[in-house]
Structures are given as C-alpha cells and as structure tokens.
Design a protein that fits this description.
Helix content: 25-40%
Distance between the termini: 20 Å
Largest sheet: 7 strands, parallel
Function: Hydrolysis of 6-phosphogluconolactone to 6-phosphogluconate.
Mean pLDDT: 95
Pathway: Carbohydrate degradation; pentose phosphate pathway; D-ribulose 5-phosphate from D-glucose 6-phosphate (oxidative stage): step 2/3
GO molecular function, one term: 6-phosphogluconolactonase activity
Family: Belongs to the glucosamine/galactosamine-6-phosphate isomerase family. 6-phosphogluconolactonase subfamily.
CATH architecture: 3-Layer(aba) Sandwich
Enzyme class: hydrolase
Strand order of the largest sheet: 3-2-5-8-9-1-10
Length: about 230
C-alpha cells in the first residue's frame, strides 16, 4: 500500500490539497488540462477549504464527480453542492468545465448521460471509504460491484435509495486514484484491507495512494507507512 499518515484530518486534507495543486500544474504542463473527479465526505470539505488559496491553474481544470446522491444540485446532501459551496464558488473554474452528475434525473438516464461526457481518461479520481468499506457509491452486496462500463445507477438497499457512481472499471482507468480516509471508525476495516482480509469494495481500487490521519491508521503496521508531521 502507498500510505501517507498525518496527525489530524486537517493535516491530511492539507496534504491532499497540495498534491491536487501539484498534479494540476503537472497535467496542464504535460497535456494542457487537468481532469479530476471529486468525492463526497468530510475530508474533502477540509481539502476544499485548503485549496481555495493555493496556486492552481483553474482555467484549465475540468471537474467531475465520482458519485452522487439522487437529489437536486442545491440539496445539502449533494456532493456537487458540497464542492460548490466549499470550493467552486471561490475559484475561477469556468462554469462549462464543471460537470455534475444530475441526481435529479432518472438514475439510469443520468448515468448514461454522464458516461457520454467523461474524458477518455481522468487524471485523478478522489475517493473516500465508509465504515463498511464502500467507496464511491459501490456498497457491499450491491449489483454495482459487478457492473462494467463507466457510470452506473446503483440501488443501495441499506440506504433505501439509488446512487450514481463510477464503476471500478472507470476508477481504475484513471492515471491516479487517491483515497482520503480519516477517523478512528475507519481503522478496523482499513487494517483488514491492508492484510487482504474480508471482501470490502474499497479493496478493488487498484494501486491507490492513501491519505490517512493517525486515527484511521492506528491499526496498520508501522512498516510501510510514510509518516508525516
């Protein structure tokens, strides 16, 4: 595992923000644009705040989302809404370069439309991990774990809802995959994933870079970590 451990969630988010800015500058220099998929969760909120004042070539950044709830874009549960109020309202990304998953549409239609507008390859996909080991909206026991293609509508019975999500095929096709995981509640599952135990969806993400705080990493072996201050 490529693991970086930081003291607090704030430190973890700041490190991820710095890596985001660096990856954006590198992608723009090499390919003329940076195509990145954002995720939901609490750690990205902290990352968004850190990114506001960083040197990022926003005019060349294209924003996507790795998953979305089936809600309107102004709903507080919407991943797009979280990114908008936390980051996009503060930085000069051209509006036409922000591509949201349309959670207000029929889920199957929204998934088809989003798959059609994605670039050939994303530079970075940002992901989180739930206490149950899910990532994006690929939850344990759901049909989406077995589906191919790029974007799917995934029924999540344990949440009594449908979700829109990248498939593992799409996630693993990106140039880089980053998992931002913080909090003691994540530690037991993360330790099992590190040992190759269990059948957690997040284990299907190929060769990710893990950005962890000390609480999430508490049950990992000390060897193999890159500890940060």
């Amino acid at each position: 595992m490529k693991v970086q451990v930081f003291r607090t969630p704030q430190d973890t988010a700041a490190a991820a923000a710095e890596a985001f800015a660096e990856a954006a500058r590198r992608a723009v220099a090499e390919r003329g644009a940076f195509h990145v998929a954002l995720s939901g969760g609490s750690t990205p909120k902290l990352m968004y705040a850190a990114l506001r004042d960083m040197k990022v070539p926003w005019q060349r950044v294209h924003i996507y989302f790795s998953d979305e709830r089936t809600v309107a874009p102004d709903d507080e549960q919407s991943n797009y809404h979280t990114a908008k109020v936390g980051l996009l309202d503060f930085v000069p990304v051209p509006a036409e370069q922000v591509h949201r998953l349309k959670g207000e549409l029929d889920p199957a239609q929204a998934a088809r439309e989003y798959a059609a507008l994605l670039p050939a390859q994303l530079d970075v996909v940002l992901l989180g991990m739930g206490d149950d080991g899910h990532t994006a909206s690929l939850f344990p026991g759901t049909d989406g774990l077995q589906q191919g293609g790029r974007v799917i509508a995934n029924e999540v019975p344990q949440q009594f809802t449908w979700r829109l999500s990248f498939t593992f095929e799409e996630i693993n096709a990106a140039r880089e995959r980053w998992l931002l995981v913080t909090g003691a509640a994540k530690a037991p599952v993360l330790a099992q994933v590190a040992r190759g135990e269990g059948d957690f969806p997040v284990a299907r993400v190929h060769d990710p870079v893990w950005y962890l705080d000390a609480a999430a990493a508490a049950e990992l072996p000390k060897s193999g970590r890159r500890a940060q201050s």
